[in-house]
Amino acid sequence: MNLPVNLKYTKDHEWISVEGDVATVGITDFAQGELGDIVYVEIETEGETLDQEEVFGSVEAVKTVSDLFMPISGEVIEFNESLEAGPEAVNEDPYGKGWMIKIKISDKSQLEELLSVEAYQDLIG
């Protein structure tokens, strides 16, 4: 299983990458593997400011629908629109082409609450 060490992780199986005041968010390799073939990604929160743990969208796989949770508070400034036509990118490249949203970070101190790669590995066993 692929778990890049330069990312932070959440207990809800999202990853986050930070560059300045902007964070990129997606779901982990573990999450996409558990969900199976992803057929639809729904994000309708672009332009909204959401709190940490709020739902920012959902992913639909063949057998289930799963909510996506904000890893930190901020404004959703971009949605990866290529996922509308090609949601399978989440399965094929969850840390690259399968990213979901970009957030303008409101509270950088929340980054300290996120999991390191080692803590996330412990969580998923």
**What is the level-2 CATH architecture name?**
Beta Barrel
Give the low-pLDDT segments: none
The number of distinct structural domains comes to 1
User: Largest sheet, described in full?
Assistant: 6 strands, antiparallel
Give the mean pLDDT. 97
The CATH topology turns out to be: OB fold (Dihydrolipoamide Acetyltransferase, E2P)
Which class in CATH terms?
Answer: Mainly Beta
How would you sum up the global shape? Answer: globular
Kindly estimate the percentage of residues that lie in beta strands according to DSSP: 35-45%
The N- to C-terminal Cα distance equals 12 Å
What's the quick description here?
This protein has 125 residues and is an alpha+beta fold.
Describe the 3D structure.
- The chain has 125 residues and is an alpha+beta fold.
- It has a single domain, classed as RNA polymerase II/Efflux pump adaptor protein, barrel-sandwich hybrid domain (OB fold (Dihydrolipoamide Acetyltransferase, E2P), Beta Barrel), CATH 2.40.50.100.
- Helix content is 18%, strand content 35%.
- It has helices at 29-35, 82-85, 89-92, 117-124; strands at 8-9, 14-19, 22-27, 38-42, 49-50, 55-61, 65-69, 74-79, 101-105.
- It has a 6-stranded antiparallel sheet with strand order 1-2-3-9-8-5. The chain has a 3-stranded antiparallel sheet with strand order 4-6-7, with no helix packed on it.
- It is globular and about 35 Å long.
- The mean pLDDT is 97.
